[in-house]
Amino acid sequence: MTAEQARADERLTTVGLLFESTTGLGRIFEPQLSADSGLSRQSFDVLVRLARTPEHRLRMSELASQTSLTPSGLTRSVDRLEESGMVSRESCPDDRRGAFAVLSERGRVVMDDAIPLHIAHIDEVLDGVLTPSEERTLSSLLRKIRDHVHTVEQPGGPGD
Amino acid sequence: MTAEQARADERLTTVGLLFESTTGLGRIFEPQLSADSGLSRQSFDVLVRLARTPEHRLRMSELASQTSLTPSGLTRSVDRLEESGMVSRESCPDDRRGAFAVLSERGRVVMDDAIPLHIAHIDEVLDGVLTPSEERTLSSLLRKIRDHVHTVEQPGGPGD
DNA sequence: AGGCTATAGTTGTTTGTACAAACAAATACC
DNA sequence: GGTATTTGTTTGTACAAACAACTATAGCCT
């Protein structure tokens, strides 16, 4: 085997580990999130973005791109959140095609509870797995990959 | 903010990066895989396990755990692969409840083509993002997380 | 042997997701 | 100012995923 092939194979393995780790963590976090707060990971993700936004409101398209959801996926997701009373839609005065997703009072209350619980759970699950220094290293390596992925997906777009 | 809270928040960020990187890579790889070989990432994943196994055969339950699929998910996945002629089921002589999924000749041919193409694509996408040393570091850190995740999910189970 | 529990795998049903088409409003162009 | 194109969002449809209930076989304990 040539050196190029060996390197390529290692990359395959690394990518495999990335997928395995992520899906595994998802399977651990999701049930707890659901038990703690009755939220799916995706709903949580949508609500976090809204909770972290100054006016607790974002345009649908903004929210879709921030959450890695397709436009239709976000529509359906916000439909569900609206049904459960945690989000409402408001029309956009500047652009009558547009809609805002707005975190409701109930949504805010739910998230005030859910966010610290979720953080604590992540913390608990990952405690002692990596040293603090390793954690920083991992974070910085992943950031490089994430940024690269974004440039591949949206050539010309800014990072974050 | 206390030191504990800061560390927990960093972990949240790291987990977020893990999810973002993975879903981003998935969105890059999947269409190419589909274009090159007509396979979903999941089918590919199932077929790779079979291709890498000495007799090109694995028990359904083995395959399910290796691919992070639920038993029912694997049943359906193998159903589809069987329909497209790449896998067949064989009953297990030692345990009549059990079934093997076996890579067919056609499956083998498809994978002989698909694997190098996929590896080349991964290689191309990730080229130059990390240094070789960083790649090894990332791989080893992810392996720790993956192994930990497995112990949390199946307490008492072996690693790999 | 007889019966209890556990394991392997499949299937019913419900829910989620994506793609593409539809629709509405805004923008561009002449 | 009127038509064509683009953009923001939703909806129709098809497909895939998870959970739980089910079937069949195995293993155990007496």
Overview of the structural elements:
2 copies of one chain form a homodimer. By secondary structure, the first copy, chain A, is mainly alpha-helical. The first copy, chain A, has helices spanning 3-37, 41-51, 60-67, 71-83, 105-126, 132-153; strands at residues 57-59, 87-91, 99-103. In chain A, helix 1 (3-37) packs across helix 5. Chains A and B meet through helix 1, helix 5 and helix 6 of A and helix 1, helix 5 and helix 6 of B. Chain B binds a DNA duplex (30 and 30 nucleotides) through helix 3 and helix 4.
Outline the secondary-structure elements.
2 copies of one chain form a homodimer.
Chain A: H1 3-37, H2 41-51, E1 57-59, H3 60-67, H4 71-83, E2 87-91, E3 99-103, H5 105-126, H6 132-153
Antiparallel strand pairs in A: 1-3, 2-3
Helix pairs in contact in A: 1-5, 2-5, 3-4
Chain B binds a DNA duplex (30 and 30 nucleotides) through helix 3 and helix 4.
Notable characteristics:
160 residues, Arc Repressor Mutant, subunit A, 2 domains, 6 helices, 8% strand, globular, disordered C terminus, DNA-binding
- The protein's oligomeric status is homodimer
Strand residue content of chain A: 5-15%
**Strands of chain A, total number:** 3
Write the H/E string of chain A, N to C: HHEHHEEHH
Distance between the termini of chain A: 40 Å
Please list the strands of the largest sheet of chain A in the order they lie side by side.
1-3-2
Main sheet record of chain A: 3 strands, antiparallel
The overall average pLDDT of chain A, rounded, is 90
Which superfamily, in CATH terms, is the homologous superfamily of the largest domain in chain A?
Winged helix-like DNA-binding domain superfamily/Winged helix DNA-binding domain
Number of helices of chain A: 6
Helices and strands of chain A: which structural class?
Answer: mainly alpha
CATH architecture field of the largest domain in chain A: Orthogonal Bundle
Rg calc of chain A: 19 Å
* Principal-axis shape of chain A: globular
The name CATH uses for the topology of the largest domain in chain A is Arc Repressor Mutant, subunit A
Q: Output the CATH class name of the largest domain in chain A.
A: Mainly Alpha
Largest contact between chains: A-B, 50 and 50 residues
Question: Could you say how many structural domains of chain A there are in total?
Answer: 2
| Portion of residues within helices of chain A | 55-70%
Enumerate the spans of chain A where pLDDT stays under 50 for 5 or more consecutive residues.
Answer: 156-160
